[in-house]
Please model this.
Amino acid sequence: MRVSSRTVNFVLELLPSWTFLSAFLIASFVLAVTPGPGVLYILARSLSQGRASGLMSVAGVALGNFGNSVAASFGLAALFAVSSLAFTAIKYAGAAYLIYLGVQALRSRSASSDQRVPEVERLNRGRIFRDGFIVALLNPKTTIFFAAFLPQFIDPKASVAAQSVMLGAIFVAIAALTDSLYAHAASRIAPLFARAKNASAVGRYFSGFTYIAMGVLAAFSSQKTNRT
Model:
C-alpha cells in the first residue's frame, strides 16, 4: 500500500522543527528510561513469569499510555485538572486494581515439580496484556503528564490535537522500546531465581507485594505530572 505524498506532507507538518524534535526525542528517552510504576510492573512480570509475559505487559502498558495520550489531546487532562473528584475516582480505581493483582499473585500456587509444563507457560497472554493495559490506562497522572509535557513542543498555529496525538505516539513508542529492554534484562536474570530453592514462592511474593506496594503508592500519591 503506497502512502501518498499528501499524507507524508501532512505528517511532516505535524512534527516540530528539527531543533524542537531533537529536544523532544532526548527528553522522551530520558523520561522513558526513568523507572516508574509501569517499569516496576513490567519488571515484576518479567522476573516472575519470563520474557514473553514481560513483553506482553509492555504492549499492554504501551496501549494504555497511548490511550492516556489521546485523552490528554482531547481534553480529559483539563477535566482532571479542574475536577479533583474525577481524578480521585480514576486514581483509586487504578490503585484498587493493582492491589487486586497483588492479592491474586499471593494467592496463586506454584506449579508442582511433576508437571511437564510450568505454570508460567500456561498463563493467558491475553490476560497479561489486559492487566498491563488497565494498569496504565487507570493512572490519571499519565494523562496529566502528557498534558504538561507535550504542549512544550507543539506549534499553536497547526492542529494542536493532531500534533499532540503524533508526539504522544512517538513518546509511547520510545517508552515501549526502553520497557522492552527492561523486560529482556529482567528475563535474563529470572533463571537465576528459577534455579534457587523456593524460587517460585519468592517470585510469587515479589510480584504480589510489588503490585500491592504500587497500588498503595498510587492511592496516596499527589496529583503530579511524572512519567509512569
Notes: The chain has one domain: 17-220.
